């Protein structure tokens, strides 16, 4: 995940390209509303990142190690927003983005061990300004292709000069091993000019199983070190 701050002209050009085959100009008020919404999502991501950084600092003092390897954030791309709304039969609009999409703002937390994923998720969800909207545990219940991660949709308040707004953020928590597999799987599956076949899918699933075994072995080693 890598956040990109787009200027107004670039956003306008991209919107005009994806909204319709014809050139559609968004009015200045609508453009301003869209830019404000994206700024709100960036603020929400910063709030979530700060919360995880604080937890990482606390747990580093308690356990003499950092449970978080890295925290990354991203805003969903405009073509992805358009595509997802289209699949739901919803026209592209600023209101539809906020009302229909839960993953415009995304934060990915890469953890050292599997237990850290659940420890951090539990600590975050105990905070009184965080509300859980949806949780999907793809670690205990991996996707058919082998993908593993814990997904949370939460709302977090952002405090502006004259108002407080609740914003939705998608959080993905995974280990280093899970993240490496997901990144490489995406590169291989969507490589241009290559027909992804069943043999490749089967091999990637086997790699995912090996990745899960690696996590289990590392967790066992951590337990041994902790208990000695």
Q: How would you describe this protein?
A:
By secondary structure, the chain is α+β, with helices and mostly antiparallel strands. A hairpin with a 4-residue loop joins β4 (150-159) and β5 (164-175). The longest helix is centred in the N-terminal third of the chain and has 36 residues, at 28-63. It has a five-stranded mixed beta sheet. The chain has one domain: Beta Polymerase, domain 2. The protein is flat and about 65 Å long. α6 packs antiparallel against α7. It contains seven helices and five strands, in the order ααβααβαβββαα. The chain has helices at 8-19, 28-63, 78-87, 94-100, 114-125, 176-189, 198-227; strands spanning 68-75, 105-111, 131-137, 150-159, 164-175.
How would you summarize what this structure contains?
The protein is of the alpha+beta class and 228 residues long. Helices cover 53% and strands 19% of the residues. A five-stranded mixed sheet has the order 1-2-5-4-3.
């Amino acid at each position: 995940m890598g956040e990109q701050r787009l200027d107004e002209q670039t956003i306008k050009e991209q919107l005009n390209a994806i909204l319709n085959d014809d050139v559609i100009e968004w009015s200045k008020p609508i453009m301003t509303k869209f830019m404000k919404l994206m700024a709100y999502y960036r603020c929400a991501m910063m709030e979530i990142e700060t919360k995880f950084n604080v937890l990482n600092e606390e747990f580093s003092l308690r356990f003499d190690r950092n449970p978080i390897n890295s925290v990354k954030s991203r805003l969903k791309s405009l073509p992805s927003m358009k595509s997802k709304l289209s699949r739901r039969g919803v026209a592209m609009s600023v209101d539809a983005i906020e009302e229909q999409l839960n993953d415009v703002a995304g934060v990915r937390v890469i953890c050292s061990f599997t237990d850290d994923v659940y420890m951090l998720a539990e600590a975050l969800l105990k905070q009184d300004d965080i509300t859980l909207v949806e949780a999907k545990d793809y670690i205990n219940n991996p996707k058919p292709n082998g993908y593993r991660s814990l997904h949370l949709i939460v709302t977090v308040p952002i405090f502006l000069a004259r108002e407080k707004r609740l914003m939705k953020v998608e959080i993905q928590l995974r280990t280093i091993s899970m993240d490496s597999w997901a990144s490489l799987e995406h590169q291989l599956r969507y490589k241009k000019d290559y027909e992804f076949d069943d043999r490749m899918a089967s091999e990637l699933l086997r790699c995912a199983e090996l990745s899960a075994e690696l996590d289990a072995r590392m967790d066992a080693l951590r337990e041994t070190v902790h208990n000695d």
